[in-house]
Design brief:
Order of helices and strands: EEEEHHEHEHEEEEEEEEE
Helix content: 10-25%
Structural class: alpha/beta
Shape: globular
Radius of gyration: 17 Å
Strand content: 25-35%
Oligomer: single chain
């Protein structure tokens, strides 16, 4: 797996975007991502759709590679860590999580995160709330127009359609505006929303090999 990076400035701070669907905030050494949807494949299997759990394993392998690359002190999930409550995939995620006992785990709850007290303990969370505020940044799953300041969000799984003379392709992206950094869905087992992107944004589109601004 190749990690391509691009440094950007937000509120006079350095953030590093990656082609592996996550960002890194240099100050505080925080790995930031959204929409893992752990348990989605198990949920589909439970409902009669045969899917391999290789999808989740691949997501966790990418996450491990990012942890190794950036050596963060914390990782922040900006909503939808889970997809459908507790299931066998969640148990596998917790086993993966146990490899990093010193890594602080912050969860900003999303619309899919139905977490009981027992499941919260199982996940070994250091923080869980509807939003997280750090140094003037608000981490929240879905953008809130009524809130002031700069928001780091997820939820819509942003994507861009690129057209050529031969075909059109859809690629995931980051979207950066004056008051928002919209993160791509970390899990590759998600759709892309190419229509509800923030207006007046810069888009950072990525492939397996590179990340570039359009």
């Amino acid at each position: 797996m190749f990690i391509a990076t691009k440094k950007i400035s937000i509120q006079n701070e350095i953030f590093i975007l990656t082609n592996q669907r996550a960002a890194f905030r240099e100050k505080g050494k925080a790995l930031i991502l959204s929409d893992l949807h752990i348990g989605k494949t198990a949920h589909f299997r439970k409902n009669g759709i045969a899917l391999s759990n290789h999808i989740m394993k691949s997501d966790l392998e990418r996450l491990s590679a990012l942890i190794e690359y950036f050596q963060p002190d914390k990782f922040i999930v900006v909503g939808d860590l889970l997809h459908a409550g507790d299931n066998s995939d969640v148990a596998e995620f917790c086993t993966w999580r146990s490899q990093y006992p010193d890594l602080q785990f912050y969860l900003v709850e999303g619309n899919h995160d139905r977490i009981s007290a027992s499941l919260e303990k199982k996940l070994c969370l250091d923080f869980k709330a509807d939003l997280l505020e750090i140094d003037g940044f608000t981490f929240i799953h879905d953008f809130e127009p009524i809130k002031s300041g700069f928001q780091i969000t997820g939820h819509i799984h942003p994507g861009i359609v690129l057209h050529s003379a031969i075909k059109s392709i859809r690629l995931p992206c980051f979207a950066l505006s004056d008051n928002q950094l919209l993160l791509p869905a970390f899990s590759k087992f998600t759709g892309l929303d190419t229509k509800n992107l923030p207006k007046k944004s810069k888009f950072f589109v990525f492939t397996d090999a590179e990340i570039y601004e359009i």
